[in-house]
Design brief:
The chain has 276 residues and is mainly α. 71% of the residues lie in helices and 1% in strands. The chain has 9 helices and 2 strands; from the N terminus they run H-H-H-E-E-H-H-H-H-H-H. The chain has a two-stranded antiparallel ribbon. Helix 5 crosses helix 6. It is elongated and about 85 Å long.
Length: 276
């Protein structure tokens, strides 16, 4: 009877808490996959076509491959840093900052924290600008349809940026926002949707023109100045780097998957140890 009660208590504890004593998160493989898709196939992919036009058919793909390898290496590295010490039973690091603090400590914690939050801050700015540009494009398209192609359709992006910022502030006040699992699934569907729309528009344009435009070196100096060419290259590099921002939130995504996948393993381990 005593062993059965102990077994029951350990099973209930394993169901509610992880090995650090914290309440288990309820993320599943589906929601975690949605997080990954949303992070990898973000709105940054919409600017990759323009970035390729700036960098050319040689340098552009090489830059994309380079950032892909950096992201892949960072992902493996951060996955290994999820637990400190033993990779199975070591202390869990629930955030990027906890991993840095546990493994490096000292001023590295502050330095990496500044880099991470600066990256997140820049990403937030990028999404704000991207959303305002998208809304302006929709309004400009409506203006041309109503007034003709020769109409002067110029609008300020400030109202859209302010509106987007206000909406973000309101959403950030929602309690337990990270537990709204269906939002990640919706975001993943939207990511696939606009990525496929962009691909379809690109293919349709090539079919309509009868050939694929572009060159090995990008925009020719015959159409732009040297300053515009250089500025376009840097903008293209920035757009590609912006599209590869997945690794910085990997540990936060991994913790939701870890609890879900190891849930059955923890229970079986406890049961086996008691029955022995």
């Amino acid at each position: 009877m005593e062993k059965e009660n102990q077994l029951k208590n350990d099973v209930e504890k394993a169901q509610l808490y992880d090995d650090d004593g914290r309440v288990k998160r309820t993320g599943t493989v589906l929601t975690t996959s949605s997080h990954i898709i949303t992070a990898v196939v973000g709105s940054g992919v919409l600017s990759l076509a323009w970035a390729m036009a700036q960098l050319g058919w040689i340098f552009g793909p090489l830059v994309m491959i380079f950032f892909s390898l950096v992201t892949l290496y960072s992902s493996f590295l951060l996955a290994d840093c999820y637990r400190s010490g033993d990779p199975v039973s070591g202390k869990r690091n629930y955030t990027f900052m906890e991993a840095v603090h546990s493994i490096l400590g000292g001023y590295y914690n502050l330095l990496c924290g500044i880099c991470q939050y600066a990256n997140l801050y820049g990403t937030a700015i990028g999404y704000t600008i991207g959303s305002s540009i998208s809304m302006m494009a929709i309004r400009r398209s409506d203006c041309f349809h109503e007034n003709g192609k020769n109409a002067t359709c110029r609008f300020s992006s400030n109202p859209y940026m302010i509106s987007f910022g206000i909406i973000q502030i309101i959403f950030s006040q929602i309690p337990h926002f990270h537990k709204i699992w269906w939002l990640s699934i919706l975001a993943a569907i939207m990511s696939f949707t606009y990525a496929l729309i962009g691909l379809a528009l690109g293919i349709a344009t090539v079919v309509e023109n009868g050939k694929a435009y572009g060159s090995i070196t990008g925009l020719s100096l015959e159409t732009v100045t040297e300053t515009e060419k250089l500025w376009g290259i840097f903008q293209g590099l920035g757009n590609i780097a912006f599209a590869y921002s997945y690794a910085q939130i990997l540990i936060e995504i991994q913790i939701s998957l870890e609890n879900s996948v190891c849930h059955r393993y923890d229970i079986d381990s406890n049961v086996g140890s008691i029955l022995q």
